[in-house]
């Protein structure tokens, strides 16, 4: 009896609900695997996919988005061992799962907490409501590979944004595996798009892209690069979330800040009368 | 029987203008370090109103330092309850001196007294009164149990609503516990300087509010000063982008309220007379010097002729002239430079093939004037449909279906405001959901209130002013 030869997994990008290789045909060796080395073109393709998904995802009911995020938690729970095998501590997988559950519940509550009627001094109905800003580029924290990633994706998408995420270059396997979770959670294709490879190669393209509405620099550790990305983002006045300090405790209560920073407030007026 | 027109001029005797003004730093008026100055003129007559100090980098330095000290020693540690009382005091003094402020605003800006008296000033007082009440209630504002101020706020404001923009900036900043250095626009500094006197009259502690006058260079020195923690700017998208670049990589929190090219959408079931009033208000209010002006009229094809005929009839009734005449509807263009810009873009509109129309109207010989103007036959490619003119110039486009109206309305890099005119409620809500704009006025236009958040999507900027949302810009959340 010879020992069974294992079937290895190819770690690819996640764009528009599909798992393509980099159009550049390149990969890099990390965590003992060949992982796609995304190109600037891949970044642009990911933005196209993310933009295409905005209408459906932002137009979905809050209840529906909440259920889908909860479904992500269900899928992640079931794959706990797979992440542990990749070196993610079990506690971190649990925390990441719980984070999806936490954010899932926000979908139909944030508009009430963050919007509402305004008592204007006149005979007018006046209501403010939050809306997603659109396509968000996200640089995932270098660590923790899974919890950090979930903690930046979930707050962006729960309100109806779509994202293009640059995974931690040093630990992309958990990210690609999370993409497989997302692909089986009824999340529409294009809502989350994942790029693996070098931050310095893809993220400047995203920061300068005129069809990206916001950029979350959470995982950028190089201060000069962060400043450069912010300068690029100014071209179309992207909403910018600045880098998160390296000593940030990702297990702490995240608060609503990461959600509200990626929202627009729309206020509608109408006269009252007969 | 024909009646002769009888003007009803407001007296300017209520305003006591000094020949020259210093900078307001640390509670007193001081001379600028290098002695530079410029003049502010009445745009309706080109008469020089006063000489105003021009702040250089040293003056900005002094002002930021004063604000820092006041933040650390007085305003930061002060209980919210007491900050509230100072803001209430300011609101009351503004109400008490409102006629003086309104007349001065009209003199310096060129806007009709009817508007400065009935719109700007009531809103200014209301804004201070509203935010005063927040000062001791911040833990209840929804930003956590103990939200903290940022420190020193650098604020740069435009010339279109000089005192109102000052109120939008200073009231929430102070309520949240910050101190400020504010730069008014170089063509309209006078009401800000009168406001400085009001701060003195209110016994506001020295250094909490500092006013540095000057042009673009002064503004740049202020927002780029390493000692400021917060930058708030209202003005052009071009300058807004430059500021966004300049704060990159710093700790400074930034909010921007920038340009717009709002669509005012009129459906065939709209009450035409009301819609026409809304169109006129949307574009000719404040001479069209309004970032949220309804500068693109999108009218449904089936009623386009009727709406245009009615609009032209109404425009012929607009009284253009002396801002201090209580009958005046459209005042003076704020500056020669702005007039040149409006003329240039209007000429481009005609050159690109749109049809230009203005009612017969006599413009005064001196001063900066532009007759209310509409362009028909405008396409989405025309520059007058894409660029902010910031003047009394309306571009008229048509549409057939609601979906086409959405497409055209959103076809702009801006996203500040929009208008909808229809009798059908479900259509209003359907459309409001789809318009990428921060403020949507349905069957009304250009309404403002301190409780109502204002601000843009896309390249119209970020952050909101007004309401609970407006506090966020000045808190560490």
Automatic annotation (TrEMBL), chain A:
Domain Aldehyde dehydrogenase: residue ranges: 33-240
Pfam families referenced in this protein's UniProt entry, alphabetically: Aldedh
Keyword Transmembrane found: no
Keyword Oxidoreductase tagged: yes
Domain of life of the organism encoding this protein: Bacteria
SUPFAM superfamilies tied to this protein: ALDH-like
Official protein name in the record: Aldehyde dehydrogenase
GO molecular function term, any single one: oxidoreductase activity
Keywords: Oxidoreductase
């Amino acid at each position: 009896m010879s020992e069974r030869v294992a079937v290895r997994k190819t770690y690819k990008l996640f764009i528009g609900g599909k798992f393509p290789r980099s159009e550049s045909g390149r990969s890099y060796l990390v965590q003992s695997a060949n992982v796609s080395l995304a190109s600037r073109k891949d970044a642009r393709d990911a933005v196209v996919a993310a933009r295409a998904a905005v209408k459906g995802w932002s137009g979905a009911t809050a209840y529906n988005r909440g259920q889908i995020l909860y479904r992500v938690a269900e899928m992640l729970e079931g794959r706990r061992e797979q992440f542990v095998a990749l070196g993610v501590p079990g506690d971190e997988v649990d925390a990441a799962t719980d984070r999806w559950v936490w954010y899932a519940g926000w979908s139909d509550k944030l508009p009430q907490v963050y919007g509402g009627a305004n008592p204007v001094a006149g005979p007018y109905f006046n209501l403010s409501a939050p809306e997603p800003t659109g396509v968000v580029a996200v640089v995932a924290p270098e660590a923790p590979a899974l919890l950090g990633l979930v903690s930046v994706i979930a707050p962006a998408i729960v309100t109806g944004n779509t994202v293009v995420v640059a995974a931690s270059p040093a630990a992309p396997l958990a990210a690609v595996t999370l993409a497989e979770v997302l692909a089986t959670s009824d999340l529409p294709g294009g809502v989350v798009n994942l790029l693996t490879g070098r931050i310095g190669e893809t993220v400047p393209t995203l920061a300068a892209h005129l069809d990206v509405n916001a950029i979350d620099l959470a995982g950028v550790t190089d201060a000069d690069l962060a400043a450069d990305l912010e300068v690029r983002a100014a071209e179309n006045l992207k909403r910018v979330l600045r880098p998160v300090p390296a000593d940030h405790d990702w297990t702490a209560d995240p608060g609503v800040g990461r959600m509200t920073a990626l929202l627009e407030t729309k206020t509608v007026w109408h006269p009252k009368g007969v | 029987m024909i009646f002769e027109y009888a003007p009803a001029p407001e007296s300017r005797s209520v305003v006591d203008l000094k020949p020259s003004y210093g900078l307001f730093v640390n509670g007193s008026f001081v001379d600028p370090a290098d002695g530079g100055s410029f003049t502010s003129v009445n745009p309706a007559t080109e008469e020089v109103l006063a000489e105003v100090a021009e702040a250089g980098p040293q003056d900005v330095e002094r002002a930021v330092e004063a604000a820092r000290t006041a933040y650390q020693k007085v305003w930061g540690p002060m209980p919210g309850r007491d900050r509230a009382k100072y803001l209430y005091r300011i609101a009351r003094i503004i109400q008490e001196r409102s006629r003086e402020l309104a007349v001065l605003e009209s003199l310096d800006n060129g806007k009709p007294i009817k508007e400065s008296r009935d719109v700007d000033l009531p809103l200014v007082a209301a804004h201070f009164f509203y935010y005063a009440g927040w000062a001791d209630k911040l833990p209840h504002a929804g930003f956590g149990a103990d939200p903290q101020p940022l420190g020193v706020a650098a604020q740069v404001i435009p010339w279109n609503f000089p005192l109102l923009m000052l109120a939008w900036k200073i009231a929430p900043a102070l309520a949240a516990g910050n101190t400020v250095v504010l730069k008014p626009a170089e063509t309209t500094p006078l009401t800000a300087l009168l406001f400085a006197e009001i701060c003195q009259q209110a016994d506001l502690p020295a250094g909490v509010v500092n006013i540095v006058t000057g042009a673009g260079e002064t503004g740049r020195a202020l927002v780029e000063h390493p000692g400021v923690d917060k930058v708030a700017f209202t003005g052009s998208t071009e300058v807004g982008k430059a500021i966004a670049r300049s704060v990159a990589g710093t700790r400074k929190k930034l909010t921007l309220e920038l340009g717009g090219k709002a669509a005012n959408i009129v459906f065939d079931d709209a009450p035409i007379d009301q819609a026409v009033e809304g169109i006129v208000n949307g574009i000719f209010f404040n001479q069209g010097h309004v970032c949220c002006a309804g500068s693109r009229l999108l009218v449904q094809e089936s009623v386009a002729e009727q709406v245009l005929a009615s609009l032209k009839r109404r425009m012929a009734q607009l009284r253009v002239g002396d801002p201090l005449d209580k009958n005046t509807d459209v005042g003076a263009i704020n500056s020669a430079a702005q007039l040149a810009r409006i003329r240039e873009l209007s000429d481009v509109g005609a050159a690109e093939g749109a049809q230009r129309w203005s009612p017969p109207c006599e413009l005064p010989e001196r001063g900066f004037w532009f007759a209310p103007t509409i362009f028909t036959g405008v396409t989405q490619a025309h520059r007058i449909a894409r660029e902010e003119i910031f003047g009394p110039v309306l571009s008229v486009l048509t549409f057939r279906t609601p979906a086409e109206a959405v497409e055209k309305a959103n076809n702009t890099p801006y996203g500040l405001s929009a208008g909808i005119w229809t009798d059908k409620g479900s259509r209003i809500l359907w459309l409001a959901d789809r318009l990428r704009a921060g403020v949507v006025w349905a069957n009304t236009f250009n309404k403002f209130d301190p409780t109502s958040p204002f601000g843009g999507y896309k390249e119209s900027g970020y952050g909101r002013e007004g309401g609970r949302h407006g506090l966020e810009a000045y808190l560490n959340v």
